[in-house]
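Model the whole thing, not chain by chain.
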Amino acid sequence: MHQPEITRRKSRQITVGSVPVGGGAPVSVQSMTSTATENVAATVRQIKGLEALGCEIIRVAVPTRQAAASLGAIKSRIAIPLVADIHFDHRLALAAIEQGVDAVRINPGNMRRQADVKAVVLAARDRGIPIRIGVNSGSIRPRGAAPKTAKPLVELMVEAVLRYCEDFESWGFRDIKLSLKASDVLQTMAAYRAVASACDYPLHLGVTAAGAGEAGIVKSAIGIGSLLAEGIGDTIRVSLTGPPKHEVHVGWQILEALALRRRSPEIISCPTCGRCQIDLPAIVRQVKRRISARNSHLRIAIMGCIVNGPGEAQDADVGLAGGKGSGLIFRRGQRPRRVPANRLVQELIAEIDKLDT
Amino acid sequence: MHQPEITRRKSRQITVGSVPVGGGAPVSVQSMTSTATENVAATVRQIKGLEALGCEIIRVAVPTRQAAASLGAIKSRIAIPLVADIHFDHRLALAAIEQGVDAVRINPGNMRRQADVKAVVLAARDRGIPIRIGVNSGSIRPRGAAPKTAKPLVELMVEAVLRYCEDFESWGFRDIKLSLKASDVLQTMAAYRAVASACDYPLHLGVTAAGAGEAGIVKSAIGIGSLLAEGIGDTIRVSLTGPPKHEVHVGWQILEALALRRRSPEIISCPTCGRCQIDLPAIVRQVKRRISARNSHLRIAIMGCIVNGPGEAQDADVGLAGGKGSGLIFRRGQRPRRVPANRLVQELIAEIDKLDT
């Protein structure tokens, strides 16, 4: 298959713990804990669950001194890099850095004095850890300004981030990644595009506060996916109201949909229509269940009829095209063979086994 | 809010029954039945269910003469335009047109002779109905061609569609919309972009055979959403393995995420983190349930803490920012007021009621 390729924006590379971000490194999947960070046991448990699902960098909120003091204990018990998320109080950032976190995320705009921001930057420089400058739509709007006279939000976000970068650079610090998340998809896309062309820092992508359920998945997939398809973005975090493991799943699905990463088989399956004479949804469910533990990169086509079925099945590694009471089974480079409907799943799995050894 | 705007591609306008497509008309949401079209009662029941969910154009497969003969009865019992999907046998298309369908979808590449295609086009012209030329990745690959010498799939798809357009035009027919769906997201995007710049026919967008569950939603949202964000696309159909009502929901979510259409309140809600001291997911669920029947275009922010909460809540029409045991309630242009945690939902709904009358 001639896959159109994504030409990625050239960005500087930083490393978050053991994970390179930017400079052509694989786009990594992040999440954030929803536990109280002060509760080390609960936080470690949640992080380990997320690690198992493919979370590659984890961030925790650090709203209190006790949360900051818990970071060393958390870090010692997890395998993936730990990022401390700090707002308002720079002393919490200093304490987090002291505890050995792999990166901090701050929004310099909500710390009181520039000297406080500088103290955090110098501490990170001394420890050799990067900082994410993270500006969200909810943090940037000048309060009270009349909407008609205010600059567009996107412009304000980009200006703020670039100003903070200049400050950091003036302090001899370039170990930076940036995020400019808006709760609106088009604003998010516009903000990242503008900053992507204005600097070479690696970018952490996300649509902030995307909401719950499918609406949140759709917003995140469009916002993050469109930017990635343009080559913009070095690490991603999907923000969904609900358990963070869901964010990791959706993050991977975005990367797989664009062939930026692959870790599981891809199933191409049709929606079925009045032509379909096999129970395709049941076949898809059964095949999914039986291959769920596999890490191979196979493309598996499961198609209901002969209109597009044989074509998709031939383009895939293995495939199935339904007929009346039977179906055709395809494997890359082999002649298709007809199989009765009740044996389609097992024959398809047998073909997968031949390729995925 | 300064919303970046989508500049839509200028396309010709056609009308499918009562629904304009292209030429600046609202992007419409389509689906396709999964029932046997020969079964009029089941098909009408499914279509009526989809109408109620916001499906604006419905397509049915017409694989048999009996299916074609059922179309008049189906059409007489539904309110939305009916499109007949026909492959291989042009006589089925002629019969469908005779039955009074509002449009037909064909892939001229799978009909035997050009004279057959011409007969369908002339019949549509006589009836004054449009034709969708729909070419899918699974239909276009020249069978048996060595992958290395074959042209890229996307190029083949675009060439084929433009060639069919020329044929139709030579027969005096321009009442056309086009689709070029691939099962791969990047191929889909490349194919639509190429055809969008090569002609002015309206475009029906979709990622074909996107699969089941969230992976299918993510593929569809990225493929369809990226194109729409670029201004490409006049009507959409999400193809998911599973009940077609799901396709209609996701289609609307894509249009709403890009502010191309609005029919329900938008909920901006954060993923919660170690800062959140209210049960935000429960509040979101309760608010969702209590506003589910509303058609207003309100933006409702439900945020866990003071980092980005007040900002998002002020940008929304109504909003809530959580604190410890209480929260702030916001309404456009009003001073925020503090409310105990157990009254947050009802106070938020009360504010919504004030705006949504």
